[in-house]
Amino acid sequence: MTEARKVPLLNVANILTMARMALVPVFLLSLFAAGGFDTTWRLIAFGIFAVASFTDHIDGTLARKHGLITDFGKIADPIADKALTGSALVGLSILDVLPWWITIVIAVREVGVTLLRFWVIRYGVIPASRGGKAKTLAQVIAIGLFLLPQNDVIAVIAWVIMAAALVLTIVTGIDYVIRAFKLKARAGRAVA
């Protein structure tokens, strides 16, 4: 029996992942409420984003600690992350808080990695790497800072962390391409 068959699909880790997905529209509604620049609504949007982002840490920890890792979770978790960070980036770009080119670079990488995962899924699952997790953390912190009402100190810190997130985004994107081709090549050799 495979690991995915032994572990129930409906478990606390997967429920948290789906809750994170459900929070995305709530986050967007609060981000754009009152024109997108009302301090109270921005703080609410920040709070929702922070809670949703924290569920990513919790669901992964619970899945590993209690053996709740499923193939569904391996796929759904990064998709939930991308939905949350992607919607935040697009929202911030619509509000002219973040330049569109940053959102586009990150979105292209995220969509590309997701497509790569689906392309090689019949050969195996590419789990998130440490670099990918660092990239996600840097993006989440930078986005969170951009969601907050701005002052000079917050703005500088936000831009420094976003620059680091962009570097990690590109480097880990290249790493996932290499890993996908290696996985496919290994599977091809195993069949031959």
UniProtKB/TrEMBL annotation:
<keyword id="KW-0812">Transmembrane</keyword>
<keyword id="KW-1208">Phospholipid metabolism</keyword>
<keyword id="KW-0472">Membrane</keyword>
<feature type="transmembrane region" description="Helical">
    <location>
        <begin position="154"/>
        <end position="178"/>
    </location>
</feature>
<keyword id="KW-0444">Lipid biosynthesis</keyword>
<dbReference type="GO" id="GO:0016020">
    <property type="term" value="C:membrane"/>
</dbReference>
<dbReference type="GO" id="GO:0008444">
    <property type="term" value="F:CDP-diacylglycerol-glycerol-3-phosphate 3-phosphatidyltransferase activity"/>
</dbReference>
<dbReference type="GO" id="GO:0046474">
    <property type="term" value="P:glycerophospholipid biosynthetic process"/>
</dbReference>
<dbReference type="InterPro" id="IPR043130">
    <property type="entry name" value="CDP-OH_PTrfase_TM_dom"/>
</dbReference>
<keyword id="KW-0594">Phospholipid biosynthesis</keyword>
<protein>
    <recommendedName>
        <fullName>CDP-diacylglycerol--glycerol-3-phosphate 3-phosphatidyltransferase</fullName>
        <ecNumber>2.7.8.5</ecNumber>
    </recommendedName>
</protein>
<dbReference type="InterPro" id="IPR048254">
    <property type="entry name" value="CDP_ALCOHOL_P_TRANSF_CS"/>
</dbReference>
<dbReference type="InterPro" id="IPR000462">
    <property type="entry name" value="CDP-OH_P_trans"/>
</dbReference>
<comment type="similarity">
    <text>Belongs to the CDP-alcohol phosphatidyltransferase class-I family.</text>
</comment>
<keyword id="KW-0443">Lipid metabolism</keyword>
<keyword id="KW-1133">Transmembrane helix</keyword>
<dbReference type="InterPro" id="IPR050324">
    <property type="entry name" value="CDP-alcohol_PTase-I"/>
</dbReference>
<dbReference type="InterPro" id="IPR004570">
    <property type="entry name" value="Phosphatidylglycerol_P_synth"/>
</dbReference>
<keyword id="KW-0808">Transferase</keyword>
<feature type="transmembrane region" description="Helical">
    <location>
        <begin position="12"/>
        <end position="33"/>
    </location>
</feature>
<dbReference type="Pfam" id="PF01066">
    <property type="entry name" value="CDP-OH_P_transf"/>
</dbReference>
